[in-house]
Amino acid sequence: LQHSTVQPVPSTRPETSSAETMMDIGTRRIFSEDHDLFRQSVRHFFQEEVVPHHKEWEKAGEVSREVWEKAGKQGLLGIMIPEEHGGIGGDLFSTVVTWEEQAYSNCTGPGFTLHSDIIMPYISKYGSKEQIERFIPEMTAGKCISAIAMTEPGAGSDLQGVRTYAKRDGSDWILNGNKVFISNGWLADLVVVVAVTNREAKKAAHGISLFLVENGMKGFQKGRKLEKIGLKAQDTAELFFEDVRLPADALLGELNKGFYYLMNELPQERLMIADMAIASCEFMFEETRNYVLQRKAFGKMIAHLQTVQHKLAELKTEICVGRAFVDNCLQLHAEKRLDPSTASMAKFWASDLQNKVATQCLQLHGGWGYMWEYPIAR
């Protein structure tokens, strides 16, 4: 057997554990110098166009449409959507940069990731040529904001329990039902609606389809913006569909294949949540480290208390372990080798860690951790 003499070039990029801070640009072997340059521009965008307005958006319960169009002009939307479909045509790691930089900005309002990396792929992968040409360029430009309507008052995680129903009427469909907890729902120009199309199917999963419903269609009403304990600037709404007449070309993909489309896209959706959770942990750790280096108690900086040092060391270790696993998952996904179970592990581990880090870092802030002016409170 011939043995290859080509050896992989070792990366000289420091990993998170050895970087000066967990948010340093130029770290982690999964990224390149091109990604670093892109990260600089994305970080600047969030600092200049999002952070200064976020408090105002929290009070309003929604971000401005203007920031969506600015994100489009900056090339931050539809990054992984092929150029021939009207997207940017970038790679996974460029999209990951936008996930992480939003988490590093501590601004949860803009629903860019949901729009670009959950909803747009449904249209790009399963939509007709006409649907792609009509919606994708406008979505990439930030001029058409999208949402996906799955959850109902009686059906959350159980998608097979959906009751929203679309009935044939000639070549059209008549849609009836209501949805709740819909992110981007208030601002949405386009909603991907999950509906039952075959009540006689042997299994509920065999009778679910996806429809493209546009804002302004007769019978489509948006309810109130829902007030939440967090994510205050992210618009979340109830949606109502009463005898909404949809043309035949509103069906997304094949009839009764909607459930399978949803399942096919879950690994990326879970991975996105995992990566943003770890990035959030990294932000919270750095915010807390900066705080304890400034805060005095017992006559000295609390960063000099051994108990505080031990807690920070423990948190950093767990975050770095989580980061290594999630980065491995990102690499697998880039190679189209990420399976649903591994993606689920990443989402579980990272989101659970995010809760732990938030709690512990808030405690290290003392009473000030409960004040909204401090980033850790948010």
List strands and helices in order, with pairings.
Layout: H1 33-50, H2 54-60, H3 65-73, H4 92-105, H5 112-126, H6 129-140, E1 146-149, E2 165-169, E3 172-183, E4 190-196, E5 208-214, E6 220-225, E7 236-246, E8 251-252, H7 258-292, E9 296-297, E10 300-301, H8 306-334, H9 340-364
Parallel strand pairs: 1-4
Antiparallel strand pairs: 2-3, 3-7, 4-5, 5-8, 6-7, 9-10
Helix pairs in contact: 1-4, 4-7, 5-6, 5-7, 7-8, 7-9, 8-9
Keywords summarizing the entry:
globular, 378 residues, alpha+beta
Ranges where pLDDT stays below 50 over 5 or more residues in a row are 1-8
Instruction: Give me the secondary-structure category.
Output: alpha+beta
The termini sit apart by 59 Å
* Percent of residues in helices: 40-55%
What's the total count of β strands? 10
State the helix count. Answer: 9
Taking strands numbered 1, 2, ... along the chain, how are they ordered across the largest sheet?
A: 1-4-5-8
Average predicted confidence as pLDDT: 94
Task: Let me know the largest β-sheet.
Answer: 4 strands, mixed
Radius of gyration computed on alpha carbons: 22 Å
Q: Could you give the order of the helices and strands?
A: HHHHHHEEEEEEEEHEEHH
Shape: globular
Strand content: 15-25%
Oligomer category: single chain
